[in-house]
Hints:
Helix content: over 70%
Number of domains: 1
Largest sheet: none
Order of helices and strands: HHHH
Number of strands: 0
Distance between the termini: 47 Å
Strand content: under 5%
Number of helices: 4
Amino acid sequence: MEDKIIMQCWEDLANAIVLQAVEDYRNACDALRRRPNLRAQAKRKRSLEHFFRSGWFHTLSALDAEPLLEEIRKGVRI
């Protein structure tokens, strides 16, 4: 029983990391739509794209990164 609880905690942590990255990516895309010359946001967006395409992301999640990124880009608030 304790092993299940520990595993659930790790899964919750992995999900929280991915959800935070999604929110950060959404915010970076949103900022760049409003002001395309924001270098810091462009760098942040590239860094997050690198994360989503990394082995680390695939360790944390079974999601396919490219469709996820496309869906986030479509849903960007203007």
